[in-house]
Structures are given as structure tokens and as C-alpha cells.
């Protein structure tokens, strides 16, 4: 097993600072490049807070061992989904993966760009409910801090970014079709925050989960075709320049009647406040 040493960050902070966080660039990509599902290739230079979780021991050396997404909310803090760090994914209670890393600044998973940052510690929400999927949040503390330009603010409760109809973008290296076609580069799809009623209708309680509006957020497009998918879990849903959701679950990918379900970041903040001593700073509402 090859153990790549963490490389010095190559992304210039000045460049990052100069680039406004505009979720998506020009939409003119070939269909073959479409990814997340119904998305397009984007650059980590424009979205440095989008990071990949990696374990080559468990997921193999291709695609840098990527298996989930994450998001940088503080220089040493990455949020992801609890189910990404559960026994089904990383094997064994509490996680037995020894080579878990956070990859920042790497668009192409076949490259060595950016940095692979070892994990100092992780906290998986003990209240994560595998039956409903409620509370799907975990916190990774990095062994070395990222530059401040990597951090995205989080939207607290009451922020207008949570209003239904708000345009948002979901980011990840996951499946681009729902048939196991994992992306090599970071992709993003434009979706919108949907009314809770859309997900309450889709997920009243079933094998995949139960939609709970206090802790989850519903997003997609009414016509379907744009969505997060397997491998995107834990990654960011961003609206108005702020983090509003973490990719969590759904029935299939891109189905019109089955929107994507996200961990509601404002609720995750409450969970972290109550359960941990850490509270990453939040963006002021309005
Ligand atoms: C997954 O399996 C998954 N369409 C994540 C998000 C969605 C579906 C599945 C939403 O990780």
C-alpha cells in the first residue's frame, strides 16, 4: 500500500481570497462530464471548502481512496455525515480505519494536487438514528489547520438561505448517474431548497428513512435529474455563500418524486453545541 506523504498546499491563498465564492461557472459542459447527478465540473479553487474523505486501506488506491465528502467550517474542523464514519462504511465500532485523511485542494482524484491531512480526532453524533437518518452529522478535527480561505460560513437558524425556492448547489466526487459512475473531478449541481412538504410526501417513513423537518433539509429540482448521489454523502449544500446542508440520503438519485435529503446545518449546530465543547462560528442570519 502506497502511503503518500501529505503535500504542502499548492493553492495560493491570494488566489483563493480573490475568487468570489460563486458556486458554478459556465454551464457549457459535455454530457459525458455531467456529474454529482446532472451537474458539471467545478474547481476546488472556487470551492475550497469542499473536501474528500479518503481511506486507501479500505477503498483502494484509485481515486485517492475517496469515499465521502466533507466541508471545512473552521480552519481545523470538517463536517461530514455520521453515516460516513459508521461501522458499515469504515468498519467496526468507533472506526478502525487507520489511514483516514481529509483531502483538500484536489480537483482530480487521480492527481496528487493539494494536501492530504491526517485526522487528529473525530466525533460521530451518538444520536444519529439509522432508522430515520436523523442527526446525520460528524466532526473531524484536522491534525493541521487549513488556511482561512478554505472556510465556508454556516447559515444559522432563521437565515433566508433556508427558504424554499432558494437556489443552492451541491458538491461532490460521487456517482454521476446512479449506476456507479464515480466522478474523477469535483462536480456540482444547481438545485433549490424545496418545501418540507415535498420530502414529507416522498419519505413518510420507509426503509430508506423518514423525513424530519427539524433536523433535515429537502432539496432538488421539481423535474428531477439534479441531485446528490452515492459517494457525495457528507459534502456541502451551499446557498447564498453559506453552508445549509450536508448530503445525507434519498431514494435513488435525481428521481423527480424523490428529492435529496440533507442534514440541516442549523440543527447540526445545536447538536454540536449541546454535545461537544466546540462550536464553530456561524454566519449572522439576514
Ligand atoms: C448515498 O447513498 C446517497 N439522492 C446520498 C444521497 C442521495 C442518495 C444516496 C440523494 O450516499
From TrEMBL:
SMART domains: Tryp_SPc (SM00020)
Pfam families membership: Trypsin
GO molecular function, one term: serine-type endopeptidase activity
Cleavable signal peptide: 1-30
Ranges where the Peptidase S1 domain occurs: 36-277
InterPro entries recorded: Peptidase_S1, Peptidase_S1_PA, Peptidase_S1_PA_chymotrypsin, Peptidase_S1A, TAT_signal, Trypsin_dom, TRYPSIN_HIS, TRYPSIN_SER
BP terms from Gene Ontology: proteolysis
UniProt keyword annotations, A-Z: Disulfide bond, Hydrolase, Protease, Serine protease, Signal
UniProt entry tagged with the keyword Repeat: no
Entry similarity comment: Belongs to the peptidase S1 family.
Name of protein: Serine protease
Amino acid at each position: 500500500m502506497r502511503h503518500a506523504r501529505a503535500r504542502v498546499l499548492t493553492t495560493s491563498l491570494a488566489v483563493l481570497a480573490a475568487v468570489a465564492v460563486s458556486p458554478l461557472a459556465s454551464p457549457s459542459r459535455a454530457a459525458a462530464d455531467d456529474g454529482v447527478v446532472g451537474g458539471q465540473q467545478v474547481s476546488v479553487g472556487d470551492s475550497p471548502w469542499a473536501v474528500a474523505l479518503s481511506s486507501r486501506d479500505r477503498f483502494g488506491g484509485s481515486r485517492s481512496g475517496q469515499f465521502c465528502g466533507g466541508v471545512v467550517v473552521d480552519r481545523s474542523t470538517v463536517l461530514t455525515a455520521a453515516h460516513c464514519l459508521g461501522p458499515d462504511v469504515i468498519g467496526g465500532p468507533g472506526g478502525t480505519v487507520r489511514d483516514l485523511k481529509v483531502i483538500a485542494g484536489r480537483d482530480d482524484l487521480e492527481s496528487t494536487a493539494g494536501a492530504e491531512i491526517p485526522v487528529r480526532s473525530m466525533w460521530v453524533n451518538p444520536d444519529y438514528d439509522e432508522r430515520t437518518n436523523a442527526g446525520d452529522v460528524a466532526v473531524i478535527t484536522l491534525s493541521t489547520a487549513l488556511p482561512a480561505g478554505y472556510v465556508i460560513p454556516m447559515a444559522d437558524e432563521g437565515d433566508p438561505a433556508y427558504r424554499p425556492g432558494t437556489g443552492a448547489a451541491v458538491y461532490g466526487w460521487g456517482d454521476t448517474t446512479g449506476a456507479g459512475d464515480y466522478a474523477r473531478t469535483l462536480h456540482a449541481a444547481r438545485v433549490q431548497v424545496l418545501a418540507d412538504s415535498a420530502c414529507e410526501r416522498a419519505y413518510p417513513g420507509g426503509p430508506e428513512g423518514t423525513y424530519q423537518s427539524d433536523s433535515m433539509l429537502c432539496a432538488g429540482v421539481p423535474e428531477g435529474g439534479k441531485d446528490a448521489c452515492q459517494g457525495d454523502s457528507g459534502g456541502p449544500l451551499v446557498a447564498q455563500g453559506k453552508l445549509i446542508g450536508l448530503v445525507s440520503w434519498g431514494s435513488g438519485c435525481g428521481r423527480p418524486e424523490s428529492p435529496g435529503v440533507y442534514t440541516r446545518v442549523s440543527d447540526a449546530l445545536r447538536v454540536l453545541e449541546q454535545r461537544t465543547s466546540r462550536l464553530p462560528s456561524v454566519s449572522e442570519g439576514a
